[in-house]
Design goal:
globular; single chain; 153 residues
Length: 153
């Protein structure tokens, strides 16, 4: 196996890739957290037409009990866990929460509907769970609050 980097097919973009490469992981971590937050905000605060009672009603309908406490737990994990992942604070514990949440979503709601998200399948929560697993393994990394304070799990 060669230790030399591969020759870039479009060579002139190499310097751009090299300069942006250190930002790729913080970008993925930030976007993952940021994109989870609206789901939690809708569940907790109804900012997009949902709300805690609607979320609890859905949970009760699909057999997830106790529905109201679980609605708060899920909304909090998505909103506050997403915020923590986005800024890289308590990154690994937040990622664990998201992984557990997505595993329950897959097994408790989406699995019977197959793979594709359009049919209610598990594709979307599996993607979030996979992203959270990568974040769990890597931690906050550079450009995180965890790194700035010099402490992480």
């Amino acid at each position: 196996m060669s230790t030399q980097p591969p020759v870039r097919i479009i060579g002139f973009v190499g310097p751009l890739y090299d300069r942006l490469q250190p930002l790729s992981y913080p970008f993925m971590r930030f976007i993952t957290g940021l994109f989870l937050m609206p789901h939690g905000a809708d569940k907790l605060f109804g900012v997009f037409g949902g709300g805690i009672e609607q979320t609890a009603g859905f949970f009760a309908h699909v057999g997830l009990q106790p529905a109201l406490p679980l609605a708060y737990l899920v909304g909090g994990t998505e909103f506050f866990g997403g915020l923590c992942i986005a800024i890289g604070l308590l990154t690994r514990p937040a990622a664990v929460g998201v992984i557990i949440l997505m595993a329950v979503a897959i097994l408790g709601v989406h699995l019977p509907h197959g793979f594709f998200a359009q049919a209610g399948g598990f594709e979307y929560p599996a993607l979030w769970g996979a992203m959270a697993l990568g974040i769990l393994i890597r931690g906050g990394g550079e450009f995180s609050v965890d790194r700035a304070i010099g402490r992480e799990f």
